[in-house]
Amino acid sequence: MGIEDCTILHLDMDAFFASVEVRDDPSLQGLPVVVGGAGNHGVVAAASYPARARGISSAMPMAIARRRAPDLVIVPPRIDVYREVSARVMDLLREVTPAIEQISVDEAFLDVAGARRLFGPPDRIAQRLRSRIREELDLPSSVGGSVSRAVAKIASARAKPDGMLIVPAEQTASFLAPLPVGVISGIGPKAQQALERLGVRTVGQLRDVPASALRRAVGPQAPMIATLAAGEDRTGLGTRVRDRSVGTERTYEHDLVDPAEVRRRLTVMADEVSRSLRRSDLAARAVSVKLRAPDGTTITRSATMDQPTASGERLREHVVALWDREVPRMPAVRLAGVRAERLQETSSHPTATELTGRGTGWGGLESAMDRARDRFGSESLTRGSTLEPREG
Ligand SMILES: [Mg+2]
């Protein structure tokens, strides 16, 4: 085992939207640049490294970013340009291997096992990819490598900016040990707080948490997280567990006989489910509604989405449609539930389509708002917030 076996690479562009803007307007070099809506309710979609040095991060409300850097340069998003650059990045990756899994506009996993014969060991492939992106697109990127997709992603984040970090299997446990538990996707702010109450801050400390306590703190992903913390995860591309689901259900003391009341409760549950998806960076391809009549008859109905989503608005639409169809058969409801199914991981960054608010709905913006709420505890973020694409 060594670098040769680290065939899972995670390539991530650095401060992608902001880097594209600085590239196209060199007078912005070295300045605190953010991409996002300049209005009062704008949210930072991307922050340059000089902006980050001032404590500005993506998903931050623009008002806070302005306070931290009075000389902030706010550039409106140019979605079409980012999409074009993104396509060129992905084309460069495909020249090395077809085994690619793109997870957002600026991020992809590659399995370079089959490319080694032609291009050399994974570290040389990673270096080659980074220099081609630099030469042809004039943009910085970082690459992490490992035998595990989860570790590759953590490594690319540690390699930033403009770096590379390959973690051999036998060094994984010691690499992860000092890192904060939040580096693990699947450990969101809530789980972090729960772990902190157990005195656990680092991945190394996670290893000493008994299975039952870990499950209480982080939920059903506990076994996966324990394996990862032990440095034993070997999950590569295409071998992920896709049959996980996230759901909630309630049994009512009294029968619900008003269809509007049932609809309202289902939409509340759809929102809860969508929030927990976003907390874990997951998106669902299907959503189901479970209904139980007072006589115990239970039905489950599900709908498939055109695209994986974590958007509350999307889930609500489908849940309401499923309920409206069942109303005639369900004059009274004793139990109702909503479950998101066929889950897959998403990037924690909003995608270009999400930023425009077209196509996939407001998924990216919603998760940006969740993170802003988690981080800044703002009560004032509302759905009025928008990220407008550049006009004219
Ligand atoms: Mg990135």
UniProtKB/TrEMBL annotation:
In the UniProt entry, which residues are flagged as the active site?
Answer: E107
**Catalyzed reactions:** DNA(n) + a 2'-deoxyribonucleoside 5'-triphosphate = DNA(n+1) + diphosphate
Biased segments, Polar residues type: 345-354
Domain UmuC: where? 8-188
One of the record's GO cellular component terms: cytosol
- Location(s), subcellular: Cytoplasm
Q: What top-level branch of life does the organism fall under?
A: Bacteria
- InterPro entries from the UniProt entry: DNA/RNA_pol_sf, DNA_pol_Y-fam_lit_finger_sf, DNA_pol_Y-fam_little_finger, DNA_polymerase-Y, DNApol_IV, Rev_trsase/Diguanyl_cyclase, UmuC
The cofactor remark states: Binds 2 magnesium ions per subunit.
Similarity remark: Belongs to the DNA polymerase type-Y family.
The annotated subunit structure for this chain is:
Monomer.
Q: Which function does this protein serve? A: Poorly processive, error-prone DNA polymerase involved in untargeted mutagenesis. Copies undamaged DNA at stalled replication forks, which arise in vivo from mismatched or misaligned primer ends. These misaligned primers can be extended by PolIV. Exhibits no 3'-5' exonuclease (proofreading) activity. May be involved in translesional synthesis, in conjunction with the beta clamp from PolIII.
In Swiss-Prot or TrEMBL terms, this protein is called: DNA polymerase IV
Species of the source: Brachybacterium endophyticum
